[in-house]
Here is the input.
Amino acid sequence: MMVRKHSAAVVAVLAALGIPTPAQAATNPMPGDGRIVDGKVTESAPWAAQFYRGDGSASGPSCSASIIAVDWVLVADHCLTYGHTGKVFSVKVGSLKRGEGTLYQVERYLSKYDVTLLKLATPIQNPVIAPVADAVPTNGSEVEIYGWGKTCPVSQQCPPSPVLKQATLRIDGAAKDHKGGPALQLTHVTGNASNGDSGGPAWFGGKVVGVASTAGTRNAQYSSIAVAGTRQWIRSNAGV
Here is the structure.
């Protein structure tokens, strides 16, 4: 699911695993140029999680996510709230293939801007943790994004990627995420985000620095989780 900005209105598209089309939102973003647009297939990401709006028994995942503690998962807030009123959520971990992995139920969740912390009902067995960054990368830095998003532009109909993909983007400044919070303005280098990549991470220096919020044809806006206020909020609630 990824949110895109269309003219003056923001339109969110929740695809089977697409970035809730909030994974976008900049000055003029339109839904990503397809796939984790271009990019490549990920070979290893044991910290990756798939987010489900429900108990995981029906349909596919709605968003991409990251394991940041034994019982905490990081995702975008619009993945839970965009066009949805249910209160049951779950995640699958342990597989790069969409729809596969071990299922864990969400006990509760906390949100700040377009960032949400999911508290799992039971700890993940032998998890690989995605470390959260303590500093925002400088402009010009290149980050790596990950997601199971659609393999075509959000404006077109096509299935999401059956496997986790990744792409490189460049930080070109600051922006706002789908909920008005601080975000990284990212520009296509080898690819871009699309529907279903929402909630997925942006990595820099071996740590997570952003969460997919909105996207355009050649750019994306990732909620900045290393800014002081958000970073302290994550630490005080998830303990990491």
The chain is about 5% helix and 40% strand.
